[in-house]
Specification:
mainly alpha; binds protoporphyrin IX containing FE; globular; 2 strands; two-stranded antiparallel sheet
């Protein structure tokens, strides 16, 4: 890590995700299933999107992709950039994450998801 730069922490990532779904929180469990969320780091680490209760389910962050420079291959990153599994880019209908927000999320995953 570069000492002149502060490492991205979970709180920063949570703030971005919270902002992206602002006003639509109540709909999230219905469309993504009950294992979807980021109330705390553990929940995000284990989060799965199961669109409308169907299969396949998408693990948002595959642990094998964490801390190894492969953040952009995670389902959360793909969902937020181009969409995954034939579903539209998230959050559905936008407004979408900015390049800066996406970079923060990717950096956090590549850093090993620090607290
Ligand atoms: C693998 C990941 C994901 C999948 C498969 C997925 C799938 C879906 C689907 C199927 C819908 C319903 C609209 C449609 O038919 O396309 C939806 C809605 C939505 N998703 Fe996702 N999603 C994923 C990740 C995310 C993430 C990471 C966020 C936010 C950070 C997000 C935010 C939303 C929002 C805000 C809606 C609209 C809810 C509403 O107001 O009805 N999704 N998603």
């Amino acid at each position: 890590m570069d000492n002149t730069e502060k490492q991205v922490g979970f709180a920063e990532v949570k703030a971005i995700l919270d902002l992206l779904v602002k006003g639509r929180e109540d709909n999230l469990p219905f469309v993504h299933g009950d294992a979807f969320g980021w109330a705390d780091k553990a929940m995000l680490a284990n989060a799965v999107a199961r669109p409308f209760g169907s299969d396949p389910a998408f693990r948002l962050i595959d642990p094998s992709l964490v801390g190894v420079g492969r953040a952009k291959e995670t389902n959360i990153y793909i969902a937020l950039t181009v969409g995954i599994g034939g579903f539209e880019r998230m959050p559905f209908g936008g407004p979408y994450a900015t390049p800066e927000q996406l970079a923060v999320i990717a950096e956090w995953i590549d850093d090993g998801m620090p607290d």
